[in-house]
Design a protein that fits this description.
7-stranded mixed sheet; mainly beta; two-stranded antiparallel sheet; 1 helix; L,D-transpeptidase catalytic domain-like; globular
Length: about 130
């Protein structure tokens, strides 16, 4: 399975809102930190392997029974998980179904939609594309 994360924000200094899609269309919206000039950065555009992991703890202390880790060279712990704003991520991808001002909303619903779409697989490829200026 191949999923695409298409970032919709052309300014690399801003919080990155994106859309996660598969070959049938959109799955969820996403939020990531900026690409530059932030303490924690979004992953660079490119292709990555994502592997199912179990019983992971986010940097904020939340326990995730199952999710996927994005295998980013030189980094660890880049997960898909619930969260609403930049303070909830240290480079992770936060799914949701609505956007606010630098926020992703209804993240639990978005995360469950993501898990439902990936329920029968243990690995997928993620293609990340930056927004166009």
């Amino acid at each position: 399975m191949i999923l695409q994360l298409i970032r919709l924000v052309p300014d690399p200094k801003r919080v990155q809102i994106g859309a996660l899609l598969d070959d049938t269309g959109p799955i969820v919206l996403t939020l990531e930190p900026p690409l530059v000039e932030a303490q924690y950065l979004a992953i660079p555009a490119g292709k990555y392997s994502c592997k199912r992991v179990f019983d992971r703890v986010t940097h904020g202390g939340s326990i995730i029974k199952t999710t996927f880790e994005v295998m980013v060279p030189g980094r660890t712990g880049i997960l898909f998980h619930i969260g609403n704003s930049i303070v909830d991520t240290r480079g992770c991808i936060l799914p949701g179904v609505e956007i606010g001002e630098n926020l992703i909303l209804k993240s639990r619903i978005g995360f469950n939609k993501f898990l439902a779409r990936t329920q029968d697989i243990s690995e997928f490829s993620l293609e990340v594309q930056n927004g166009r200026r």
